[in-house]
Design brief:
Elements: E1 5-10, E2 17-19, E3 26-28, H1 34-37, E4 47-52, H2 64-76, E5 83-87, H3 93-103, E6 104-105, E7 111-114, H4 127-138, E8 152-156, E9 159-162, E10 167-168, E11 177-178, E12 186-188, E13 192-194, E14 208-209, E15 217-221, E16 242-247, H5 257-268, E17 272-277, H6 290-298, E18 301-302, H7 308-321, H8 325-332
Parallel strand pairs: 1-4, 1-5, 5-7, 7-8, 15-16, 16-17, 17-18
Antiparallel strand pairs: 2-3, 6-14, 8-9, 9-12, 10-11, 12-13
Amino acid sequence: MRKPKILLIYTGGTIGMIEDPKTGVLKAFDFQHLNDQIPELGRIAAELTAVSLDEPIDSSDMNPLIWARIAKQIFNCYTNFDGFVILHGSDTMAYSASALSFMIQGLQKPIIFTGSQLPIGTIRTDGKENLITAIEIAATLDKNGLPLISEVAIYFEYTLFRGNRTTKISAHNFDAFASPNFQPLAKAGVTIQYNTSNFFQSSFSDLHLSTKMDDRVALLKIFPGFSPLVYESLFDVKKVKGIVLETFGAGNGPRNSDFFDVLEKYIAEGGVVVNVTQCFSGAVDQGKYANSTIFNKLGVLSGKDITTEAAITKLMYLLGNSNSVSGVKEDFTRCLVGELSTI
């Protein structure tokens, strides 16, 4: 059988760092010399090609323009490879994986994000296992010789997650990610156990690329004592087109007439407001409690069990690609790429 062709894209992040022996400072190393750091890659039954951003970045500097560059790079060479592995800083990985799941639809091949908590040159690094297994997953073919995975995913610490259902939960543990409302796609042990019933399959027959993202989106976390007057300028539809509200529990907010007035005016002027829960797991159920009933009346959209990362990037994507506010609202409530539970 032929060797699957895998493209490695290095964007930056801890996994691609090595300590300068003179200064002790972490710096990116040349991924053309990847085999020098991880000789085990030579034993993987895949043909590897490595590329890097012109200037690798800290993932804290990730933004929609860089997402677009990555998406275009994959789209332009899509037919030349069987899978893609993106090496990325862990801090914003869930945002980037979510964004690419909306930007590139109709996937028949895997896009696997991975990274590490320790640099790949460190003796105890988690980067080697993460990278080796991510490549192995990306190179896995089904019985028909086609890629087994056909979606954007994150592989970290023996677990493969759907990218747009994932959130970072730890700054120091190796198991830094979790998917609170969706079961993993695979678990890696002595063998890799795939949960094929959880795989996403696009309804598109062809690959679709859309890199338009409207960054006029805000995130507002509700807290006890929250004063809407402090954030009143945020509800200016000329500057902010969409707002993700992180509310309590099943989507509850404070009974505050000033807050309701601000929301009502903003939505009436064409702003889009999405309600997501602050809780680690669970879903928004607007109307279950009295304190969320008003949101239904005002036209706030229920984010159901979507993650904050997916809500933000989905709103950016829809605002950038829809011709109407009503279209944005309608599409947000639909599951586009597996980001929402449909039950």
